[in-house]
Amino acid sequence: MRRGASFRSVALAVAWRVLHNVFTTPSLLLPSLIFPLFFFTAFAGGLSRVDNIPGFDFPPGYTTFQFVFVLLQSAAFGGVFTGFGVARDFESGFARRLLLAAPQRGGLIAGYALAAVSRWAVTATILTVVAVAAHMKVGGDGVDLFGLYGLALIVSLAGTLWATGVAMRLRTMQAGPIMQMPVFLTLFFAPVYVPLDLLSGWLHAVAKVNPVTRLLEAGRSLIAGNPSEVGLAYGVAFALVAGFALWALRGLGSAERAGG
Amino acid sequence: MTALAAQVGHIARRSLVRTLRQPASAIPPFIFPMALLAVTAAGLDSATRLPGFPSDSFLAFFLAFPFIQGALFATMNAGTDLARDIQTGFLNRLSLTPMRGAALVTGHLAGVVTMGAVQACFYLAVGLAVGVSIASGVLGALTILGLATLIALAFGALGTFFALRTGSGESVQGLFPLLFVGLFLSSMNLPRNLIEADWFRFTATINPISYLIEGVRSLIIEGWDAQALALGFGMAGLIAVLSLTASAWALRGRLTRT
C-alpha cells in the first residue's frame, strides 16, 4: 500500500472507531454536548444584565457575546474529551495493539483529530440551534460566520493535539486533570464575561498576552459583522496547531519507545 | 453509649484519614474553588458598577461561592468512599460485627464534616488574606464557619444516601454535574434582583442553593440579615434532615440486602 493511502486508512479507521464509541455510549457523548449548553445557559441567562455595565459595547447583545466564548470552549474541550479516549485506549491496552497494527502511526493522531473535529461539529450544531432559539442576534454575514466556525474548528484541532500529546506521554486516565486544567485556565484567563477594556488588575494583564484573547475578540467581531484582527487570530490558531502537532508527534514517539 | 461513641470515632477517623491519604480527593476541594474564585472575581469585577449591586468588591460578593462548591466536593468524597466500601465488600464485613448502622453513618459523616470545616477555614483565611473584610465581624466569621459546616453535613448526607442507594461510585460521580448545574443556576454570579432573564431569576428563586449562597454572602457583605440567615440555615438544615432520613432508610435496605 502506498504511504499516503496507508496513512489515510489508519486515520479513517481510528476516527470511525472513536466516533462509533462516542455516539453509541451516552456517558461519553452527553458530557461534551451538555456542558457547553449548560455554560451557555448559565452565562448568557444569568449574566445578561452585564451588558448594562457602563462601557460594555457589543451591539448584538450578551447572548451573542457569550455564544462565541462557549463555541470556542466547546471546541477546545471537544479535543480534551477525545484525549480522555486516547488515554483510555492506552490504559486498556488497545493502543498497544493499534501501534503494532498501524503501518503509518502518524495516522493514529490524524484519526483522533478527525474524530474530535467531527464530534465537535455535532456539538456546535446543537449549540447554535439552542442559541438561535434563545434569540441570539447575528450581525455577521455568511462569510463572517464561516470565519468564526473555521476558527473554532482550528481550536478544536489544537485542543485535540494538546490532549493527545499528554495522553500519549502519560498513558493513563489519571492524566485527565493535566489535559483539562491548562485548557480551562487559559480559556478563563481571557475576557470571558466582559470585553478586554473592562477587565482590570492582574486578569487584564494576563488576558492581554493570552492568545485565547485574540481568538475570542476576533470571533466576537466576526459574529457582530465587524471583523477585526481576524488574520492575527487565524495566525495564532494555526501556530497553536503547529506547536501542539509537534507535541503530539513527540508524544507518539514517547508511546512507541514505551511500547504502548 | 461509650461503645457507640467509640464506633463513631473509629469510623470518623478512618473516613478522615482515607480522604487525606488520597491527594486526588483531598486537594481539589482546596484548589478548584479558589481558582474559580480568582478568575470569576477578576472577570466580573466591573459588574459592581451595575446600579443596585450590593457591594463594591466582586471578590467579597463571590466569596460565598467556594463554601458551596467545597460542600459539593464533600458530597462526592462522602459518597464515593462509601460506595467503594460497598463495592469492595467492606460494608458486608462490617455488618457481621457489632457495629451499629447509626455509628456507621454518623462516623462517616463526622469525617466529611471535619473536612468541610477545615475547607471553610481555608476559604475564609484566603478571603481575609486577599483583603475581604467580613461585614458581620468576628462573630459573623464564626457563623460563616458554622453554616458552611452544616452545608457540608447536608451535602455529605446526600452523597451518603446516593452511595447507599446505588452502591456505585460511578453513580455518585454522576451526581456531581447535576449539583454543579444547580450551583450555576443560582444567584451565585448576581443578586437575584439583578438577574435580567425572567426564567433564570425564577430558577434561581426556587433553587435551594441560592439561599445557601445568600446566607453566607449576607454575613460577608451586609452584616446581620436575619431573613437571609434564617433561609440559609433553614435550607441547609432541611437538606440535612431529609438526606439523613433517606440515608437511614437506604442503610436499612442495604444491610438487609447484605
Q: Give the number of helices of chain A.
A: 10
Q: Which regions of chain A contain 5 or more consecutive residues with pLDDT less than 50?
A: none
Summed up, the domain count of chain A is 1
Q: How much is the average pLDDT of chain A?
A: 91
Mean pLDDT of chain B: 88
Share of residues in helices of chain B: over 70%
Q: How much of the polypeptide of chain B forms β-strand, as a percent range? A: under 5%
Give the structural class of chain B. mainly alpha
How many distinct helices of chain B?
12
- How far the N terminus sits from the C terminus of chain A, by CA atoms, comes to 24 Å
Strand content of chain A: under 5%
N-to-C series of helices and strands of chain B:
HHHHHHHHHHHH
Give the fraction of residues assigned to helices of chain A. over 70%
Task: Give structural attributes.
heterodimer, A: 260 residues, mainly alpha, 78% helix, 0% strand, B: 258 residues
How would you sum up this structure, described in words?
The complex is a heterodimer of chains A (260) and B (258). Chain A has 260 residues and is mainly alpha-helical. Chain A has helices at residues 3-24, 26-46, 62-92, 94-101, 106-133, 142-170, 176-188, 201-209, 211-223, 230-258. Chain A has one domain (3-257). Chain A is built from 10 helices and no strands. The model of chain A has no long low-confidence stretch (mean pLDDT 91). Chain B is an all-alpha fold and 258 residues long. Helices cover 80% and strands 0% of the residues of chain B. In chain B, α5 packs antiparallel against α7, α5 packs antiparallel against α9 (169-184) and α8 packs parallel to α12. Chain B is elongated, with a radius of gyration of 19 Å. The two termini of chain B are 26 Å apart. Chains A and B meet through α2 and α8 of A and α3, α9 and α10 of B.
